[in-house]
Design a protein that fits this description.
The complex is a heterodimer of chains A (266) and B (292). Chain A is an alpha/beta fold. Chain A has ten helices and ten strands. The longest helix of chain A has 18 residues. Chain B starts with a helix and ends in a 14-residue tail after the last helix. In chain B, strands 1-2 form a two-stranded antiparallel ribbon. In chain B, helix 1 packs antiparallel against helix 8, helix 1 runs antiparallel to helix 11 and helix 2 packs antiparallel against helix 3. The chains are: A alpha/beta (266), B mainly alpha (292).
Chain lengths: 266, 292
């Protein structure tokens, strides 16, 4: 195994002092790898990312237990300003552009972690990855399409020269062809810049294709982990996330395993 | 007709001042959603600070002007650091009440030091600044106002459009969560918006002091005029603040000139009500960009 860049040791996250969302999550991310985090809605994937990037604080959340170790340093419950300056950038779910700024100004905000450094070359780099943005560089982000915005927010994060890039559902609400394009570029960024990437996805099929390693989350816990290839062949994953029965035909809900149908009271 | 043009010019000049002072108010509101009720007192503080520098300390006019701007810039930083920062995350109403408290405190401080009388600056603007266009006479102070306002507008335009710090400030106003995720120093942006607001307020305070004389009550009530100005312009639009300022300035001078000087403080509000009936978001309020 290669060098470990990020390690979560048994972390718990509690919102507003009462709502426990993560119940002991441990995972490790190898340098230069793409690691994917799969799971259904409410499994705690986004919370895991926020626990790493420090964005829990503004939402009144806190890592109450365990540790987040990045490059040998303890970073749990640090401010986002500190964590981004260590080289961890999270791309938020749902794109979140600065609507009233132009595309180019949006990209320039990405330089916030290293202000007053030259940024022209980085702009060129982003435009190389996303040629679709060049034509729209002077238009307001609020008027761009979903695909362009997804490219914009990934590009904006690249402007910060991240060591660890965390993408939260980059495929959300995009056409299949655009999704493919985005994933192709994610893979390219990983290969060319040796950027380590943590990828949270609902689209398990695409995610398992690009990732080296994957974790499956459920109910605030890691349920399963393994190399992407192994997981893609795993019958449970196939059934729940890839939508196929072991035999290859879609299965009826009544055959789904009992623990999936257990009543939930909360 | 000459009278009309004369009023027009004066109105635009005063209006630009209102607009620039309102711009500071809008900046604080945009970055941190705080309504600053101490804005008029910041105006007055700037005017009195300038007065102290040129009468007590006998510093040359231009140096005193620059010093006042720098001083108020720092004052803005201090206000944010010691009074507002501890309240980040508290309910907005507490923060707004705090600014009301600050207003009372500053006003008291000025009354304590200078008293409530009308002070005047020594006459320092050279008569050569006056412009004569036909029958219209533009007094030196109005020429100076125009020049200073335009310099400020251009500088701020460049700052917000070109400089990185300006773009970070706009990003926080636009989407604070996304700005945080990219490592924008949000606290610095808040501090900077207070500093800039205090600075432009002091600038307007000085110029209004030259026009009307320096008096706490007058200057702080002018601060209240930022409310019709920003509401007219749309609470979150900086260019709207400038245009709203010009409209209020024109309304005031025309009412004062044609109707009665005692009505000049009332009519702008009446017009404001009618404009808001037609355009509830103000003339230039941001229409939410809605896309799915």
């Amino acid at each position: 195994m290669g060098e470990i860049l990020l390690q979560l040791n048994n972390i718990s996250v509690v919102y507003s002092d009462v709502i426990q969302v993560l119940k002991g999550v441990s995972l490790s991310v190898e340098k230069g790898h793409i690691v994917s985090l799969l799971g259904s809605n409410g499994a705690g994937k986004t919370t895991t990312l926020k626990a790493i990037s420090g964005l829990l604080k503004p939402e009144n959340g806190e890592v109450t237990d365990g540790s987040v170790i990045y490059n040998g340093k303890n970073i749990q419950n640090q401010s986002p300003e500190y964590i981004t300056r260590q080289g961890i950038i999270q791309v938020l779910e749902g794109r979140q552009p600065f609507k009233y700024l132009t595309i180019e100004e949006n990209l320039r905000v990405g330089t916030a972690t290293r202000p007053s450094k030259p940024y022209k070359q980085d702009l060129e780099m982003v435009y190389n990855y996303f040629p679709a943005l060049v034509a729209r560089r002077k238009s307001l982000a609020g008027y761009c399409s979903g695909g362009e915005l997804q490219m914009l927010v990934i590009g904006r994060a690249l402007m910060a020269h991240p060591q660890l890039l965390m993408l939260d559902e980059p495929s959300l609400g995009l056409a299949p062809l655009v999704v493919q394009e985005i994933f192709r570029i994610i893979k390219k960024i990983n290969e060319e810049h040796e950027t380590t990437i943590v990828l949270v996805e609902q689209n398990a099929h695409m995610a398992l294709q690009v990732a080296h390693y994957a974790y499956v989350m459920e109910n605030g816990k890691i349920m399963m982990e393994g190399a992407s290839k192994d997981l893609a062949d795993n019958p449970d994953v196939k059934e729940f996330y890839l939508g196929m029965a072991a035999t290859g035909i879609a299965k009826s809900y009544k055959d789904v395993k009992a623990y999936r149908r257990r009543k939930r009271w909360l | 007709m000459d009278f009309f043009l004369q009023l027009l010019v004066n109105g635009v000049c005063v209006g630009l001042l209102y607009g620039i002072s309102a711009m500071g108010f809008v900046m604080i509101f945009k970055s941190s959603s705080v309504l600053n009720f101490a804005h008029g007192e910041l105006l007055a503080l700037g005017a009195f600070f300038f007065l102290a520098l040129i009468t007590w300390a006998q510093i040359p006019i231009f140096a005193a002007f620059i010093l006042t701007l720098i001083g108020c810039f720092i004052l803005g930083f201090i206000i944010e650091k010691f009074f507002l920062r501890p309240l980040i995350g508290e309910k907005l109403i507490f923060v707004i009440m705090l600014t009301v408290g600050l207003a009372a405190m500053f006003k008291g401080l000025i009354l304590l030091i200078w008293g409530g009388n009308l002070h005047t600056y020594p006459d320092f603007l050279p008569e050569s600044l006056a412009l004569k266009l036909g029958a219209i006479y533009i007094a030196p102070v109005y020429t100076a106002t125009l020049v200073i306002s335009i310099i400020f507008l251009v500088l701020f335009g460049l700052f917000f459009k070109q400089s990185s710090q300006g773009i970070y400030m706009r990003s926080v106003a636009d989407n604070q969560k996304a700005a945080l995720s990219l490592g924008v120093n949000v606290r610095r942006v808040f501090a900077l918006s207070w500093a800039i607001a205090a600075m432009v307020a002091s600038m307007s305070g000085i110029v209004l002091g030259i026009i009307n004389g320096v008096n706490v009550h007058d200057l702080s009530s002018i601060g209240l005029k930022v409310f019709p100005v920003v509401i007219l312009g749309g609470l979150d639009s900086i260019s709207g603040a400038i245009i709203g300022g010009i409209i209020i300035g024109l309304l005031e001078t025309f009412t004062g000139g044609y109707l009665s000087p005692s009505l000049r403080d009332v009519v702008p509000y009446i017009v404001l009500v009618f404009i808001l009936l037609i355009k509830p978001y103000g003339l230039f309020g941001l229409v939410e960009i809605e896309r799915v």
